[in-house]
C-alpha cells in the first residue's frame, strides 16, 4: 500500500466539505459534522484502489474518470442550488458527493485491473455523463433543476409526444444535444481504447476488494444508501415505485368493488340510458368563447349556441380549475375517490369505472392518448378496468386526430345502460397537429403563432363535441354528458414542470342533462343549476360523475359533488397542487384578453 495515494484523501475531503457548505442551505453544525464523516469515508474509498496497487492508471483514462465522477456528484446539488437560490427553505444534498467519490474509486479500480474490466469503464462513464447532460438540458429549458416529478413527466410521455417535442425546437438545438451525447461516447471510447495489461492475479484481487469497499460505501443500507438517495437515481427509484403501485392496483379490483355497496337513487329511466364523459387535454377556458364571450374569435360556436338556445339542458361552470398541471397528477385524483382533502390511496381508491359498474352500467373507454412507447400510468390502469378499453392506432410521427374516436361509438350497445369515456388528445402541444388542414378556421401568422393554432384546435374539439352529442342523442339514449379537461395551458408560453400561473389550470367544465334525466333526477339537475357559479377543482370529477349516476355509496361524498345541493366548497376553501396554492390567489383575468 502506498501512503502517497492515501494522502490525496484529505484533499478530496476538504473540497467535498466546502462544496457541501456552498451548495446547501440551512445546515447545522451537527449536519455538517455528520456529512464530513461520510465524506471522509468516501474520500478514503476513492483513493483506496490506487493505494493498494501502489500506482495509478494511465493519465488520460484516470482524468476522464475523475471528470465523469466529479460532474455526476456536482450536477444535482449545483442545479438544485441555482433553482432555489431565492427560496428560504433548508436543504442538504450530500449523497451525490459520496456516490461521485466512490464511483471514482470503482472506475480507477477497473482501470487498474485492466483487460476486459477496463472496457466496462466507458459505458459507466457514458451513463454518468448522460445523466449530467439530461439534467443540464432540463435546467436550460425550464429554468429549474430536475426533480422526481419532472423525471416522471419525462418518462411517462409517449413516442409521438417525444417526436412533436423534438420538432418544436430548432434543428440545431436537437443536433447539439445529439452531438454532445456522441461526443461523450467517442471521448470515453478514445481514452479507454489503449490496451490495459492485466496485473498479477494477487494485485487484481486486492484492487477488486478495494472496489468492493467503494460499492459497499455507496450501497450499504439499501434504500437509505447514498446511491439510492442521490439525485438522478432517486428519481428513477421513485418512478419504479410508482410503476409498482400501478401493477398492484390491478390486483385490488375485488377489494375496491367490495367497499362500494352502491345503492341507486332517483327514479329509474323508462329504458336503457347512456352517460358520456369527454375528457379533454390542455383546454384553457380563457380561449373558449362559451366561457369568454368577449373573445375576438368564436372558438366554440356549437357550445355557445347550446348555452344560448338551450339553457335548460346545458350548463357551464366558469370557475372550474384543474387540481394539477399535468395529466397523471390531475386524473389520478379526478378518476378516483382520491382528492386533495382526503387520505385515500390510489391503489385502493374506487374509480369512476368501479362506480359505474356497481351502478349496473357497461363501461366503454376510448382514448386517443395512445399507449405507443408509454409506460404504465394512472389513467391507463383505470381505463383497463373498463368492460371495453380501446385506443386509437398510434403511428410514430402521425398521431391521429380526435375524430378517429367517433367510430368507436358504433361499438356501444344502445340496448344497455352505458358509461362512455372519451379521452381526447384535445389541445395538447403541438397545437397544429391536433386538427387536419381542412379544419383550419384561422390562418396562423407564421410558425410561431401558437395562439392561433391553439384556437383552431379548440374549434376542432368543439366540432368533435357536437358530433359526439349528436350520435349519443340519436343512437345511444343519451341522458347526460360532461366535458372537462385534465389541465389547461397558456399557448404562447413555453410550458414547464413548475407552476407558472393560473392559466395552466383554468379548465372548462360543461354538463348536459336530457329531459329524461331531469324527470328522473330532478334534485341532481336542480343542484347543477344552483352550483353553476361555484368554484370547483377536477379532483372532484369522480364525485360529479357519482352524482350524475345518482348513487349512494360509502366511497362517495355528496358534499364534493356539484350535482348535490350539499356541495360545500367555496373559493376560499379550494386549492391546487395538493393544497400548496389557494385558488383565491387567482386574479380571475382571462389570459386571452
Keywords for this entry:
593 residues; alpha/beta; 7-stranded mixed beta sheet; two-stranded antiparallel sheet; 9% strand; elongated
Describe the structure.
The chain is an alpha/beta fold and 593 residues long. 48% of the residues lie in helices and 9% in strands. The chain has 21 helices and 13 strands. The chain has helices at 3-6, 8-23, 29-53, 59-83, 95-113, 118-142, 148-155, 159-168, 171-192, 201-219, 226-229, 231-249, 253-258, 301-309, 327-334, 352-358, 378-383, 450-475, 515-520, 522-530, 541-549; strands at 263-264, 274-280, 314-316, 320-321, 362-367, 388-391, 418-423, 478-485, 509-513, 536-537, 551-552, 575-576, 581-582. The strands form four sheets. Strands 3-9-8-2-7-5-6 form a seven-stranded mixed beta sheet, with helices on both faces. A two-stranded antiparallel sheet has the order 1-11. Strand 12 (575-576) and strand 13 form a beta hairpin. The longest helix has 26 residues, at 450-475. It is elongated, with a radius of gyration of 28 Å. The termini are far apart. The model has no long low-confidence stretch (mean pLDDT 89).
Concise summary:
The chain is α/β, with parallel strands linked by helices and 593 residues long.
